[in-house]
Design brief:
404 residues, alpha/beta, Aspartate Aminotransferase, domain 1, Aspartate Aminotransferase, domain 2, three-stranded antiparallel sheet, 13 helices, 40% helix, 12% strand, binds pyridoxal-5'-phosphate
């Protein structure tokens, strides 16, 4: 403590841009779940949005080698050249998207890639269309940029997918952007190529931009083919920013590595944002990402198969519970069952489920639907089976259940 300088404690006023920005509602549930575990309670956790696998060894070794040979300095803002070349190659061969390395930005996770692009594009008052259920950070990023999130509710009857007509009606003169995620967090649902093409026609006709969040593209299990909307024609390509990352496919959540690819002017704008915030993603970590793209893809398939099996078990289990309906997910590692028939709001439902049966799931309200809860099945089969049994017991006890 400096001596002699005394004053009243300062009044802290946070910036107005934080007004109305929701802190994560899931944090309270996670904190309670941790506290119960610390007391020795056996909690079945379905909250995690990350693979329960470790990063494949060859990826770790590549980062270790980079660290040891001294890749410890600042790097180019947009990401090391070799990595952007490898990403361009991946997008061309796997996704049918032809981007130059100069049209790619490597960032601190897909999350920061999205944030940089939104900061680079959205003016105060601009509208950004976000289909609900949505990944909880999209609306808050738009608000932080001063924009207005326009939530477009997708009907459960249409498997949580918006239709071209619905999109068309939501677009106004102020619309700047649409954000699509396929497969989706929290529903796991994917748009089929013809559905994407129909949405692309609206986007082109109404001349807006689209962010395509493809972070779960490698974790798909059903018959629906994963397609990048930007690959469906030159006009839509010119209006698409493709976002992807390493967290989910390669079990690299803690590495913080993702990327955006799009029209040069947009990526250059995103680079300006990044140059004054992050500078660059941890230099040696980028060599791990390079190894992820260039190395053995076997581990990705091993994880995909494990998730595919769990999807079957959890979906079958949930559907067999009287009163619970559950859209079958096509990808990612989430299911989003409806709890509407229980008469409880999603937060109350999750709190009681945790207290009474020690099962942690995430309230749907965080994702734009209070009638659902999200299970992540990035956990082992034994936990899934035990958790579903407890969940069924809990639902059965709810008074409203008998009237269903
Ligand atoms: C739909 C979606 N997009 C983006 C992200 C961000 O991933 P990361 O920043 O780890 O790359 C997530 C993480 O949960 C997500 O679910």
């Amino acid at each position: 403590m400096a001596s002699g300088v005394r004053g009243a404690p300062p009044q802290i006023h946070l910036a107005e841009r934080l007004n109305g920005i929701a802190p994560s509602m899931t944090l309270a549930i996670s904190a309670r779940s941790r506290a119960l575990r610390a007391q020795g309670v056996d909690v079945c956790g379905f909250g995690a949005g990350e693979p329960d696998f470790d990063t494949p060894e060859h990826i770790k070794q590549a980062a270790i080698a980079a660290l040891q040979r001294g890749e410890t300095k600042y790097a180019t803002v947009a990401g090391i050249e070799k990595l952007r070349v490898a990403i361009a190659k991946k997008l061309a061969t796997e996704n049918g998207l032809s981007y130059e390395p100069g049209q790619i930005q490597v960032s601190g996770g897909a999350k920061q890639a999205l944030y940089n692009v939104i900061m680079a594009l959205v003016n105060p008052g601009d509208e950004v269309i976000i289909p609900a259920p949505y990944w909880l950070s999209y609306p808050e990023m738009v608000r932080l940029a001063g924009g207005k999130p326009v939530i477009l509710n997708a009907s459960e009857a249409n498997r949580f997918k918006i239709t071209p007509d619905e999109l068309d009606r939501a677009i106004t003169r102020r619309t700047r952007l649409v954000i699509l995620a396929s497969p989706s967090n929290p529903t796991g649902v994917m748009y089929a190529p013809d559905e994407l093409a129909a949405l692309a026609r609206v986007i082109v006709e109404r001349d807006v931009l689209v962010i395509s969040d493809e972070i779960y593209e490698k974790l798909v299990y059903g018959d629906v083919v994963q397609r990048s909307i930007g690959s469906l024609g030159d006009d839509i390509f010119a209006r698409t920013i493709t976002v992807n990352g390493f967290s989910k496919a390669y079990a690299m959540t803690g590495w913080r590595l993702g990327y955006a690819a799009g029209p040069r002017a947009i990526i250059e704008g995103a680079n300006v944002v990044q140059s004054h915030s992050l500078s660059n993603v941890t230099t040696f970590a980028q060599y791990g990402a390079l190894a992820a793209l260039e190395g053995d893809q076997g581990p990705v398939e091993v994880m995909r198969q494990a998730f595919a099996e769990r999807r079957e078990v959890i979906h079958r289990g949930l559907r067999s519970i009287p009163g619970i309906t559950c859209v079958r997910p096509d990808g990612a590692f989430y299911v989003f069952p409806s709890i509407a028939s229980t008469g409880l709001g999603s937060i109350a439902f999750c709190e009681r489920l945790l207290e009474e049966e020690h099962v942690a799931v995430v309230p749907g309200q965080s994702f734009g639907s209070d009638e659902h809860v999200r299970f992540s099945y990035a956990t082992d089969l034994a936990t899934i089976e035990k958790g579903i049994e407890r969940f069924a017991r809990f639902v059965k006890r709810l008074p409203i259940h008998s009237t269903i």
